[in-house]
Amino acid sequence: QRDRQHLVVMAENDDEWISLQPREPLPSQCCGSGCKPCVFDIYERELRQWKQAKANGDQPLLSKNNESNQNDSQLIVPEKWSAFEIVCVEQQAADAYLYRYQ
Asked: Which ranges of the chain have pLDDT less than 70?
């Protein structure tokens, strides 16, 4: 009985870790122009941090990293990869456009 409870707790913990694992960008999400950092560089860095936190059993480390990278005034930053979709492009002037993301 005790071993079974232990396995259930481990399985729940594994689900939590999987939910925190960074998602690999799709090949189409890389522009191929040699950006520094590339979306794949950011993914590799986040995956290393996730593996280190998982090996140490330190989920709060991942939360701290996510909180430090989230800032309402800067939703798109070069140091953090985020998947998004352009939902609207409005021409504001002859050479200016307003992009709306989701």
From this structure: 1-12, 63-78
